[in-house]
Structures are given as structure tokens and as C-alpha cells.
Write a structure and sequence with these properties.
Keywords: Disulfide bond, Glycoprotein, Signal. By secondary structure, the chain is α/β, with parallel strands linked by helices. It is globular, with a radius of gyration of 23 Å. Helices cover about 30% and strands about 20% of the residues. It folds into 2 domains: about 280 residues, 3-Layer(aba) Sandwich (Rossmann fold); about 40 residues, no CATH class.
């Protein structure tokens, strides 16, 4: 009898441990056959009573998961689901762009996934984004700095439930508004690694794409527009002189600047701000390059998909890719992430910063400007980045404390 009781208790422990650690997803509606990689989804409770439930997708490296880096991916917004990264940026699956016919939209494998050589956690944050939710009404308004602490706690708890990845090199990653969160998160993790009695995270650095760093980024839209021939030389010279580099927070008494800013908007407002070479189109139209975003809402709100992803049925209503915190207030209390970049580099953490050259929202000129403002030594001047025999982009490398960033 005692032996049976011990076995029962052991079984209950294993089952509870399995639930807490997430659930393996072997099949997804819209994808033919079993998934060619290992996907796990689940929730991690945040806070003393774990009222906040943070939802994640975890994909093991298809190469060597025991030794390959562990990456955390945060999407921007704030308030965009991390499945944006998984299905549209760097994951092993993508939505097939075909006219919606009422059935579950199709998924296809990609050839460019970062999971070819890395383990990746795609985290829905802050609360209200994706499938992350709170069991009770929030007492405090979420903030940038609060989210940094929540994500740090998420990582500590996730690694305690997945100790096999605790020694893997860790990198925090994201794009767009994550440029405000990730640098602060790296600093938080670094400090936490020196606190007694908490297992250290094997932090090595971070990766950011088209990252927002401050409100000043927006001012680089004007010189970017000029460089891309979106506005004339005459308008650019006039607006530059009249506005003195400040184009979007103009003193109402500067009527000349305000008038020129109006002329600027006439030239640019009808563009697709995320990719100026693509049409500013209706996402519900199959001819729009953003049509897969429209398909995503049909795919992920399908009951069979939610069941396959092990989403708690009572957690949220209709899923939205980007809530922009429409339903939950949010305070942006990090005004400038450049000091975090500086502290992290001084602490020896490497960073990879990349920018698309047709993004008007966070133009590459803004990224170049804040990197140059750090006054680090350039060890590799601007040069082509080659894939086989083709130029795929351009790169330069800076150093600090004898370490490449």
C-alpha cells in the first residue's frame, strides 16, 4: 500500500512538472503532417501569487539544442504578439499567402529560420499581448521598467523548469519597440547574476532589429526621406533650416516650420511606412503584401488551432496580433535606451544591431546616429555583407574594451 502511494505521488509530481513546463505540440492545423521541429507552448506565472500568466512558444534548435544558443524573442508595439516573429520574421513556419476560403489558412516551412542553429523562446508580452493574461484585474499600470523585471522573472522561472538549457549561451532579441526593453533587460539580467542564491543566466549579448531608442529617432525620417528621393532638395534644405532638426514636436510659434512639415507629410503620408517600396494597401486584399497578417487572425482564432497550442480557453477573447494595449493602459517610462546600450557594452556584452533600409518608421539613419554617438572605435569600416556572390546588405563593426560589439 505504501509503495502504491509513493508511486501515485511520484506520478502526480511528474504530471504537475510536465504541465508547468509546457506542452509539446506535434501537429498544427494548416500544416501537413507532423511538425519537423520540436515546439512547446505554455504559461509561466509572474509575481508572488502568479496572477500574471505569460504565454510563450519555444522551439528547439534543429542543429544541436544542447549546445546551441538560447534566444528570447520579443516583438514590438508595445502589445504585439511574439508569433509575429515566429511566423513572419525568423521562425521555421510561415502562413501561405492564398485567398481565404473559410477553412484554416495553410502553413509552410521556411528555409531561413534562426532555429536552424538556435533555441528560441517567443514570449507574448506585456500582459494583454497575444495569449498572455492576468487572472485578476491589474492593480498597477504596466510600465517599461516593470516589464523588464517581469521578463527577467519569466526567464528565471522558465530556466528552472528547463534546467537543461541553463548553461547555453543566452541572447535577448527583438525589434521595433523592443529596442526600449531589451537593453534594459540585459542590464537587469547582468545585475541579477550577481545576487546571492539565484542561478545565473549565461548572458552573452543581445540582438535588435530596427530598434527604437528614443523619441529623437522620428526626426531622422526627414533626412531619410530626402536620401530616398521622397522629398525634393529644395524642401529638405528649407525644412532643415526652419525646423533646426526638430520636425515632429514643433513650437506653435514657428509657423514657417509647421508649414514645411505639412508639405513634407503631403509627400510621405500615402507611403507604406514599414516598407516604402511596397504599396500602402488594404491588408484584407489578397494583393497586399501584408495579407498574411489578415490570414493570421483567422488561423489563430480557430478553435482547433487554440486547442493545438494549449491555450487556456477562458484566458482571453478574440486574439489580436497587435493590441497596442488598446484594452490595458501602459506607461512608457524608458525615454532613452542609449545609456543601457553603453552600460551593457562597458560590461562586455556584445550586440548585433541590424536595420532594414526601407523602413520609414525607424529609419536606419537613426540607428547609425545613436551607435556613432557612443564614440566607439570602428575596426571594420562599412563594407558589403555577402551571401554567396550577392550583396545582401552592408556592415561595420565597432569595439570597446577590446571586445567587438
Amino acid at each position: 500500500m505504501k509503495l502504491k502511494l509513493k508511486l501515485l505521488l511520484l506520478l502526480l509530481f511528474i504530471l504537475n512538472h510536465h504541465v508547468d513546463s509546457g506542452s509539446i505540440v506535434k501537429f498544427l492545423p494548416g500544416f501537413e503532417g507532423p511538425l519537423p521541429f520540436e515546439l512547446e507552448t505554455g504559461y509561466i506565472g509572474i509575481g508572488e501569487k502568479e496572477e500574471v500568466q505569460s504565454f510563450y512558444y519555444f522551439i528547439k534548435s534543429e542543429n544541436n539544442p544542447k549546445e546551441d544558443p538560447l534566444l528570447l524573442w520579443l516583438s514590438g508595439g508595445p502589445g504585439c504578439s511574439s508569433i509575429t516573429g515566429l511566423l513572419f520574421e525568423n521562425g521555421p513556419l510561415a502562413l501561405k499567402s492564398e485567398v481565404y476560403n473559410g477553412s484554416v489558412p495553410s502553413l509552410v516551412s521556411t528555409t531561413y529560420s534562426w532555429t536552424k542553429t538556435a533555441n528560441i523562446i517567443f514570449l507574448d508580452q506585456p500582459i494583454g499581448a497575444g495569449f498572455s493574461y492576468s487572472r485578476t484585474p491589474l492593480i498597477d499600470t504596466p510600465t517599461d521598467t516593470g516589464e523588464v523585471k517581469n521578463i527577467h522573472e519569466f526567464l528565471q522561472k522558465w530556466l528552472s523548469k528547463h534546467p537543461q538549457f541553463s548553461s547555453n549561451p543566452f541572447y535577448a532579441c527583438g525589434d521595433s519597440y523592443s529596442g526600449m526593453i531589451v537593453p534594459a533587460l540585459v542590464q537587469e539580467i547582468s545585475k541579477g547574476n550577481y545576487i546571492c542564491c539565484t542561478p545565473p543566466i549565461n548572458l552573452q549579448g543581445y540582438i535588435l532589429g530596427n530598434p527604437i531608442t528614443s523619441i529623437e529617432d522620428q526626426n531622422y525620417q526627414v533626412p531619410f526621406s530626402h536620401g530616398m528621393a521622397l522629398i525634393s532638395d529644395e524642401l529638405y534644405e528649407s525644412i532643415r533650416r526652419a525646423c533646426n532638426g526638430n520636425y515632429f514636436n514643433v513650437d506653435s510659434r514657428n509657423t514657417k516650420c509647421l508649414k514645411l512639415v505639412e508639405e513634407y507629410h503631403k509627400c510621405t503620408d500615402k507611403l507604406n511606412e514599414f516598407n516604402i517600396l511596397s504599396p500602402d494597401c488594404d491588408t484584407t486584399s489578397p494583393n497586399c503584401f501584408l495579407y498574411p497578417y489578415y490570414l493570421l487572425s483567422y488561423w489563430i482564432n480557430d478553435e482547433t488551432v487554440r486547442n493545438a497550442l494549449h491555450v487556456n480557453k477562458w484566458s482571453i477573447g478574440e486574439w489580436e496580433r497587435c493590441t497596442h494595449l488598446r484594452l490595458i493602459p501602459y506607461n512608457k517610462d524608458i525615454n532613452n535606451s542609449i545609456p543601457y546600450h553603453m552600460n551593457n557594452s562597458i560590461s562586455g556584452y556584445r550586440s548585433l544591431i541590424y536595420s532594414g533600409d526601407h523602413d520609414l518608421t525607424v529609419p536606419y539613419l537613426a540607428t547609425q546616429a545613436w551607435i556613432k554617438s557612443l564614440n566607439y572605435s570602428i575596426i571594420h569600416e562599412w563594407r558589403p555583407w555577402m551571401i554567396k556572390d550577392q550583396i545582401a546588405g552592408y556592415i561595420y563593426i565597432v569595439w570597446i574594451n577590446g571586445q567587438p560589439l
